[in-house]
Amino acid sequence: MAVTMKQTSLTVATLGLLSFIFGVIAENKKPESGTTITGKGIVICKYPYDPSIVLGWLSVVFLAASTAAAYFSLFYDYKGKKIPQAALFQNTSFLVFFNIALGTTGLAAALLLWPTISEQLHHVRNVHHNLQNECPTAKTGLLGGGAFLSLDSTLFWLVALMLADNTREDYFEDAAYEPVKVTA
């Protein structure tokens, strides 16, 4: 069964939307701080159950899946017809949206990974020798910002897919009307 542009666009949109949803929920579920337990010369931080770590990782995974699906579908040969990559990148609008999609995806991944990894490290490295430690959590707002950039990158990938489809149609339309050279 052949994959259609509509199916790939729906896949990219669904995966990107899931990344956004998991990122926003992760931001809302992140605890303010941990509980400080003071011992002899050490401070142990006890953190409440924190689903934001798992949700953050899920957001990153769905962002990666959405990006992979979009990237694959840009260069996939639809209806058995393959277009050269050079023809796609000659379209200035496609090139601009492709690069913006790559940039926003990278920034979204950074903003989702940074607090997720930081929060996980806070939970694992919870014994401190500084008695003034306040049991911090990851920086607030980064997961939410990453979630919105994840949604933005999905929208840019969808625009790039539409522009690639237009370029593909133009390429094959021009190829159909190319004059035939006759040699004697």
TrEMBL record:
The chain crosses the membrane at residues 54-74, 94-114, 142-164. The keyword Membrane applies. Pfam families: DUF1218. InterPro entries: DEAL/Modifying_wall_lignin1/2, DESIGUAL. GO terms for cellular component: endomembrane system. Keywords: Membrane, Signal, Transmembrane, Transmembrane helix. It is a multi-pass membrane protein. Belongs to the DESIGUAL family. This is Uncharacterized protein LOC111388029.
